[in-house]
Amino acid sequence: MAGPLEQFEIKPLADLSVGGIDVSFTNSALWMVIAAVLVTCFMTMSMRRGALVPGRWQGAAEVMYEFVANMLKDNVGSAGRKYFPFIFTLFMFVMFGNLLGMIPHSFTFTSHIAVNFALALVIFIGVTVIGFMRHGTHYFRMFFPEGAPIATAIILIPIEIISYFSRPFSLAIRLFANMTVGHIMLKVIGGFVGLIGILGVLPFALLTGITVLEFGIAALQAYVFTILTCIYLHDAIHMH
Amino acid sequence: MPQFDIATFSEQIFWLFVIFTILYFLMSKIALPKVGEVLERRQKNIEDNLGKARALKDETDAAIAKYEAALAEARDAAQADIREASEKAAAEQAKKTEALVKKLSKKTSDAEKAIVDAKTDAMKGVAEAASEIAREATDKLIGVKVQAKTADKAVSAIVGE
Amino acid sequence: MQRMLPVTEQYNRLQLSPNVKCVFLHIMVDKYLFFRYLSDLLSALSGGVLQLDSPWGAKYVARAFPCDVCKAAKAGFTTMSDDKDRASLEELETKLSAVAHKREEKHSPNRATGKPSQGMAIGMRISAEMIAAVLVGLLIGWALDRVLDTTPWLIVLFVFLGAGAGGLNAYRVAKGYDSAVGLGRAMRERSKQGDED
């Protein structure tokens, strides 16, 4: 029986190196490719006919589109329109990554802190750049609450700065923790089912329940990741 | 935990950027414009159809209102006509009745007059005849020729009472 | 909504008495309520992050739908078959206005978002916020210590500041001031609430 952490192991499929940096094509990259291909197929094949009255697949693609569009509109407003392709790609990529991870013996690239943190960092830097571009140095006011006594600045400003810089970490850690814990739990309980044979009925029921829950969490975490991005974008654009 | 194996970070991040960038361009250049276009087209279609339905509905409402107005007008006109006709008929009737009554009363009075005349004539005739008969009778019976004047006097004295 | 229209169409074409239609109506309302229940449940489970109302809820369970049919059925019931055309016109009117109303509602900006969060998801979020903030504090402290050669004083200080920031972030999440960076917004919100109280 493989350990519950084995499923997270990165296995190189083709060794590759650019400028002395290891960029081997791994199982993680493979599943990213699968996710990207599936997203692309889903969004293009279903819309191929572009029917006025949508079929099942087209309806699904449209629901995804409108879902993300509404999320962006509700949280950022019309100024966020420009960033819609990015937000949409982010949502679909993370969600497909999470959901593909539910396939037995697959690999969940979103359970890796490096991937999540890289995504979160791109978002964080992008949002900060947008903030400074729109508001100039005025954007620094983010770090000191309006109307607070000036004497408290010495303590509040470091706290606000830490709070601001903790955004990419909290984004990455949340997704990583949810995916990792869920998969470990599934693996451990799945192991019980095999180990105790006929008595495995009880863990099996539990396993079924947790699997359903994990599917929900896979979609939910993609949603949370995306909506927090929208909220950060709102802050950068409007500064309240 | 394999997640904290720093040696694998570079390859993961590299492929993440490559694949995510490709996906981003596929989405923003190909997939999303198509969806947006379809949604917009549908939106427009629905709006058009709604507008059309609304216009047709309004048209129908207007037609109904017009029809109802015309109906009411026609009904009013018909009622007026009927009233007028019946009034006219009643007036004619009254006139005719009056004329008839007049005619009848005239006839009655004429007839009465004629009767009275006839009676007078008849009375006159009777007196003349009576005096004639009386004169002839006296002449035949007693051979006395009575003067017509005397006979008339005697007759009228009898008849006149 | 686009999907519902053919159904309403079919429904209206049913050659049934208004009474039978009303029975159908109640079944539909029950389904609708079940859907509401489901969406509320999901919303609670996700800590208010997930709201099925948009667009999954409103789109496929057209709110106005049952009422329209009810009105139409009522109209058909009271005017009887004599004024069938009139009744169908009235029905069209209610449907048209309902659709227009719904579209307006859909296009009006700024629907209220973000109920106060609750449940399991919020626990996960809070823990992530705390860990992240302490981590950032540690990182900044460590970096400053290395640059200023003050090891280990700044790292200690910044761990405490990080814990403070983590607490602040957790407070914001719990209070639903997600979109607020800066205590200022939180304080404003609170004073606003205080004014209302």
UniProtKB/TrEMBL annotation, chain A:
What name is this protein filed under? Answer: ATP synthase subunit a
What organism does the UniProt record list as the source? Thalassospira lohafexi
- What superkingdom does the record give? Bacteria
Please describe what this protein does: Key component of the proton channel; it plays a direct role in the translocation of protons across the membrane.
Record-linked SUPFAM superfamilies: F1F0 ATP synthase subunit A
Sample GO molecular function, one term? proton-transporting ATP synthase activity, rotational mechanism
Question: Where does it mainly reside?
Answer: membrane
The record's subcellular location field reads: Cell membrane; Membrane
Q: Which UniProt keywords apply?
A: ATP synthesis, Cell membrane, CF(0), Hydrogen ion transport, Ion transport, Membrane, Transmembrane, Transmembrane helix, Transport
UniProtKB/TrEMBL annotation, chain B:
Q: Which residues form a coiled coil?
A: 57-114
| GO CC terms, sorted | endomembrane system; plasma membrane; proton-transporting ATP synthase complex
- What are the record keywords, sorted? ATP synthesis, Cell membrane, CF(0), Coiled coil, Hydrogen ion transport, Ion transport, Membrane, Transmembrane, Transmembrane helix, Transport
Please give one Pfam family short name. Answer: ATP-synt_B
Asked if Transport is a keyword of the record, the answer is: yes
- InterPro entries listed in its UniProt record: ATP_synth_b/b'su_bac/chlpt, ATP_synthase_B_chain
Q: Which residues cross the membrane?
A: 12-32
Q: How does it sit in the membrane?
A: Single-pass membrane protein
| Molecular function terms from GO | proton-transporting ATP synthase activity, rotational mechanism; proton-transporting ATPase activity, rotational mechanism
Tell me the compartments it is located in.
Answer: Cell membrane; Endomembrane system
- Subunit-level organization: F-type ATPases have 2 components, F(1) - the catalytic core - and F(0) - the membrane proton channel. F(1) has five subunits: alpha(3), beta(3), gamma(1), delta(1), epsilon(1). F(0) has three main subunits: a(1), b(2) and c(10-14). The alpha and beta chains form an alternating ring which encloses part of the gamma chain. F(1) is attached to F(0) by a central stalk formed by the gamma and epsilon chains, while a peripheral stalk is formed by the delta and b chains.
Which PANTHER family does the entry link to?
ATP SYNTHASE SUBUNIT B, ATP SYNTHASE SUBUNIT B', CHLOROPLASTIC
What HAMAP family does the record tag this protein with? Answer: ATP_synth_b_bprime (MF_01398)
The family assignment reads: Belongs to the ATPase B chain family.
- Described purpose of this protein according to its UniProt entry: F(1)F(0) ATP synthase produces ATP from ADP in the presence of a proton or sodium gradient. F-type ATPases consist of two structural domains, F(1) containing the extramembraneous catalytic core and F(0) containing the membrane proton channel, linked together by a central stalk and a peripheral stalk. During catalysis, ATP synthesis in the catalytic domain of F(1) is coupled via a rotary mechanism of the central stalk subunits to proton translocation.
Protein name in UniProt: ATP synthase subunit b
Q: Which organism is it from?
A: Thalassospira lohafexi
* Gene that specifies this protein: atpF
